[in-house]
Amino acid sequence: MGTELNYLVFDYSDNTEGLGHFVAMASVTPERVAALRAEIALVLDWAFDAFPHSHGPFEDGGEWDHDLQGRLEFSAEESLSYDPVARAFTVHVGPAGVARHAVTFSIGGVPEFCGAFARRFGVE
Fold first, then answer.
1. What is the C-alpha to C-alpha distance for residues 4 and 69, in angstroms, rounded to an integer?
2. What are the strands of the beta sheet with 100-109, ordered from one edge?
3. What does R_g of the chain's alpha carbons equal in angstroms?
4. Could you tell me which residues are beta bridge partners of residue 76?
5. In angstroms, rounded to a whole number, what is the distance separating the alpha carbons of residues 4 and 22?
6. pTM over 0.70
7. Which tens digits make up the pLDDT trace of 72-117?
């Protein structure tokens, strides 16, 4: 199966206990939030369908788990000027722009889960 992911680009790492982790970060404008959340749902739906009885914390015997964090980010343009005589900057801050929706999504588990995840979503 190919990947349908346009916003989530996963990086893979593993640890000495044999667990692997895929982490993706994305930041989108409000008009793209629904598409980003649809991708997250696609990944989680696959995981819950493919490994239905093994989700949970590893320390409690889970074979796969996930973490999802979101935040709103606001930015504003700055106009900077440097006065070489005063050796100082003058800063003029513009109005805050449109909020961006930032998400950090990690999912991982035992080797069987990680192998299936990598094949399904094309992660190397």
1. 21
2. 11-14, 20-28, 100-109, 64-73
3. 20
4. 96
5. 16
6. yes
7. 998 888 899 999 999 999 999 988 888 899 999 999 999 999 999 9
